[in-house]
Design brief:
The protein has 196 residues and is α/β, with parallel strands linked by helices. It has seven helices and eight strands. Helix 4 links the parallel strand 6 (113-117) and strand 7 (145-150). Helix 2 (48-62) packs across helix 7 and helix 6 (174-181) packs across helix 7 (183-194). The protein is globular, with a radius of gyration of 16 Å. The two termini are 17 Å apart.
Length: 196
């Protein structure tokens, strides 16, 4: 099996070779999709904006690594424009951005986690590394990886750091929706990300 470096190891390398100021901590910003009037995906009474907030909150709570600081773009159900998200992220000068979302599709048997990166930026290579690490951590026998895809989302294009949009699964898939909305499932998803 090919060895894939952990996110923390990649952080160490990135800190050494980047042009960002060296700090004692690696900063990961979690951009929590949607919020407020922007519901995101909604299906069977489940809203994307609420579920990704729950997972992000658990990521921050479960992080016990003193060398990694987790910063959430929002901690409540508030609307933040895409440009305001970009401005806030860049002001924090992070080592990595993870933008959390959930998928919706007409075919309710579709499942799996997937990631998106901007393929034409200065941080494409690092973004791809992080994206693959995240998908490996989240996929298993029950949850398949749909791979890393190229996207020109504004947040991915405009932030000054490696960035990954992470789709945590399809709320239109009944079995995954049950898992993703349960406290146990959300904690497991968050734990898998934190333990990278």
């Amino acid at each position: 099996m090919k060895y894939v470096p952990s996110i923390l190891m990649v952080f160490n390398l990135f800190t050494i070779f980047s042009f960002k100021p060296l700090t004692d901590k690696s900063v990961i910003v979690i951009d929590i999709g949607h919020g407020g009037k922007d519901m995101g995906a909604v299906f069977a009474g489940v809203s994307e904006k609420e579920n990704v907030l729950n997972v992000a909150s658990k990521i921050k709570h479960l992080n016990k690594n003193e060398n990694v600081e987790i910063i959430l773009i929002r901690e409540s159900d508030e609307f933040i424009s895409l440009q305001d998200r970009v401005d806030k992220i860049n002001s924090l000068n992070p080592n990595l951005l993870i933008s959390l979302h959930a998928n919706q599709i007409e075919k309710n048997d579709v499942s799996g986690v997937e990631a998106f990166v901007y393929g034409e930026g200065d941080y494409t290579e690092k973004s791809n590394e992080y994206a693959n690490d995240l998908l490996e951590a989240l996929s298993n026998k029950k949850i398949n990886s749909r791979g890393v895809k190229d996207a020109s989302f504004l947040v991915l294009r405009k932030v000054n750091c490696p960035a990954v949009t992470l789709e945590l699964g399809f709320i239109t898939n009944s079995s995954y929706r049950k898992y993703m909305t349960s406290k146990k499932g959300q904690k497991q998803i968050a734990q898998n990300i934190v333990e990278l």
